[in-house]
Specification:
Helices cover about 80% and strands about 0% of the residues. The chain has about 240 residues and is an all-alpha fold. It has one domain.
Length: about 240
């Protein structure tokens, strides 16, 4: 029961973080591994757990989605489907030992993305549509393989397309995350790499966290929240480097 309580708390706050800025995997992946779930299964299970949170936060941003002009959503969602499928397939052929060694590096990359997010966002409207869409496709592959830092990567890619309405971009970010995560989850399930008892408990908590996070996203001080996420990511990265 203590383990399920820990997983529920991790999933709730992960759903909240993902709705606001991303970084939920900093909580779910370590919590699952701490509870004895093998690394590859922990990564897949954490992604499954966060799926309804993405969907709930997308619903929370449904009005803001209408404010983002000039974006071809069907094309964007198709790129997300293909990229998410490819990333999930790559995870299925990665063994636990290899993924265990990759975890601290993936967490480090995700943490650095958060730390340097303002620099990534500063270059908006400077890339051609082909470059921006290619970046989105690569982000989708990354998201299908490892969910950490996905939110900020999507925001940065959207900024390359020239968008600056952060609330509307958050809505698109959550919609794209929902789509690519959904296809990844289907592939994970087919590959039998999901711990379903843990996933189902965490899905309920992440849904509540995602919906609540969408509501508070416009009220929280962004700088303080970002610094908190960076600290969480840094601590988790150091812990994994020490323990592996």
């Amino acid at each position: 029961m203590n383990e399920y309580l820990l997983l529920s708390l991790a999933a709730f706050f992960a759903g909240t973080l993902n709705a606001v800025a991303g970084g939920g995997s900093f909580l779910t992946l370590p919590a699952l591994i701490y509870c004895g779930v093998p690394p590859v299964i922990a990564n897949a299970t954490g992604t499954v757990a966060l799926l309804p949170g993405y969907a709930a936060s997308t619903w929370g941003f449904r009005q803001e989605l209408k404010q983002l002009q000039g974006l071809h959503l069907p094309r964007l969602l198709m790129l997300s489907l293909f990229g998410g499928s490819l990333g999930a397939g790559l995870l299925l052929i990665t063994d636990n030992n290899t993924f265990n060694q990759l975890i601290p590096w993936l967490l480090l990359v995700a943490t650095l993305l958060f730390a340097f997010a303002p620099n990534l966002m500063a270059g908006r409207a400077q890339a051609s549509p082909l470059v921006a869409l290619s970046a989105l496709f690569l982000v989708a592959i990354y998201g299908g393989y490892f969910n950490g830092g996905l939110g900020i990567l999507l925001l940065a890619a959207l900024s390359l397309l020239g968008h600056s309405n952060l609330n509307a971009m958050n809505g698109v970010k959550n919609l794209v995350s929902t789509v690519l995560t959904a296809i990844a989850v289907m592939i994970y399930a087919a590959g039998d790499v999901v711990a379903w008892p843990q996933a189902l408990v965490m899905m309920l908590a992440a849904t509540a966290g995602g919906y609540w996070g969408a509501k508070i996203a416009k009220r929280l001080p962004a700088l303080a929240l970002r610094r908190g996420i960076i600290v969480i990511g840094a601590v988790m990265t150091v812990l994994f480097f020490i323990t592996l």
